[in-house]
Amino acid sequence: MPEGPSVRKFHHLVSSFVGQQVVRTGGSSKKLCPDGLQALWLQDTQVHGKKLFLRFDPDEEIGPPGNNNPLPERPCKGAQKEGAKDQKQALGPSGQKTSDAALHSAELLVPQGDDGPRCLRGDTPAGGAERWLQVSFGLFGSVWVNEFSRAKKANKRGDWRDPVPRLVLHFGGGGFLAFYNCQMSWSSSPVVKPACDILSEKFHRGQALEALGQAQPVCYTLLDQRYFSGLGNIIKNEALYRAGIHPLALGSLLSPSCLEALVDHVVEFSTDWLQDKFQGKHQHTQIYQKEQCPAGHQVMKEALGPPGGFQRLTWWCPHCQPQLSPKEPEQSQLS
Ligand SMILES: [Zn+2]
């Protein structure tokens, strides 16, 4: 699943559509019912950890937030090739939405008749105060702007099938957003815990250090989103390597300076990663999925996780990240 920096990038992409009205929807999501977003205004977007939140408000209450947004009825220009043509279809005489041919999906058409399987009450923002759309991304989750994801290779049957977006939002300004491989649900407000978000200015180091100091392997604690929201497997491996800490080291046996260094590396690596994303650069990893560490040592790889919990592939260098025996709670070699 995309880690904090990737979701921040998605947030940045979505931000440019804030203040615009949804003029057309598409996507394969059955749970969400993309139709329910029709004519709503995207009013805000937030990112918390690995989750993205979009706030939608109905027309009558808020209206256009500014006067420099094109009217929602205005057909899209240029940005989407299929836009102008589908626009007519989408807002056709019956007002019924039709499928978007560009999406190659049979799941797009959601009957709108009174007896049809409309969205369940309470599952749309119109019915209540639940106006925040919460988006959680799967392993290959992504957000695309003004273009659709294309198949990068053929599937097992040899078909070149493009991924099907879960949700497509066309905006009055002419652009569109496509959300892939994600789960969406409505909520009343984002569960805001910036103190846990490794990329938030409000990230609370003290709280993080306290969590890491528990008598359990640090590689388990790092992935605990209650303390390190946004931290995923790549950041875990890289921060541990850079801090010179063995993934199975018990937090309670590490010196305070060692734990400090680990938190420093978590924040530094994540921030650099985010910056690289904005500059279109690929994040440089030193240990994740490597055969050798930068010092040339053979790297170990093993699936590690709490008993009965999710085991995540973990890479570490036995030289640069030595396992401490319980008797020597000394700081590690690299820090
Ligand atoms: Zn090494």
CATH superfamily of the largest domain: MutM-like, N-terminal
Given the helix and strand composition, which structural class is it?
Answer: alpha+beta
Q: How many domain regions? A: 2
> Which compounds are bound in this model?
zinc ion
CATH topology of the largest domain: N-terminal domain of MutM-like DNA repair proteins
Beta percentage is: 15-25%
CATH class of the largest domain: Alpha Beta
Low-confidence stretches: 61-127, 329-335
- How is the largest sheet built, in terms of strand order? 1-5-6-4-3-2
Number of strands: 8
Taking the alpha carbons of the first and last residues, their distance comes to 29 Å
Shape: globular
EC number: 4.2.99.18
Keywords: Acetylation, DNA damage, DNA repair, DNA-binding, Glycosidase, Hydrolase, Lyase, Metal-binding, Multifunctional enzyme, Nucleus, Phosphoprotein, Zinc, Zinc-finger
Pfam family, one: H2TH
InterPro entries: FPG_cat, H2TH_FPG, Ribosomal_uS13-like_H2TH, Znf_DNA_glyclase/AP_lyase
Summarize the structure.
The protein is of the alpha+beta class and 335 residues long. Helix content is 21%, strand content 18%. Strand 5 (167-171) and strand 6 form a beta hairpin.
Distinctive features:
2 domains; 335 residues; N-terminal domain of MutM-like DNA repair proteins; alpha+beta; six-stranded antiparallel β-sheet; binds zinc ion
